[in-house]
Specification:
Elements lengths: L8 E6 L4 E7 L8 H16 L5 E6 L10 H8 L12 H10 L5 E5 L2 E3 L1 H8 L2 E4 L4 E3 L13 H11 L1
Parallel strand pairs: 2-3, 3-4, 4-6, 5-7
Antiparallel strand pairs: 1-2
Length: 162
Amino acid sequence: MKGSRTKGTTTIEVGAHGVALITIINPPVNSLSSDVLSSLKDSYEQALRRDDVKAIVITGAKGKFSGGADISAFEKVQEGKVNEPAPDFKLSEVLGDTLEAAKKPSVAAIDGLALGGGLEVAMACHARISTPTARLGLPELQLGLIPGFGGILIKMSRKIYG
């Protein structure tokens, strides 16, 4: 990622036992901006290509998994500063095609917040583990909205259609 337009990223570290740790970094709540989603997809694909990686763990920096979508992107759309908040690829590619369909096992290590799209990222992993104080939820349901990142629909369609 280059320049000041970059907002958020991920890092990847591979331990001696073959576990790749991918960390979402976008303070203060590790929101899922276009840059974060793109970086998450790239880091995940890098881990899948590496022969020394046997499993993948996704977590968030500073005690927060992810607070969900980057709301500031939606504000910019309303103000007419950008045409759309979505990245150049479909979110279902990140969640379903990349994470859930991967041949290597993945675990979401949840601490702090996992809300909205953040929870959908966690659900796309093969397994989830959380601290006792983690807060998980889909707050958009209280507004009568269907979760927008595609994770819910991916899970449902895979159960229905295999």
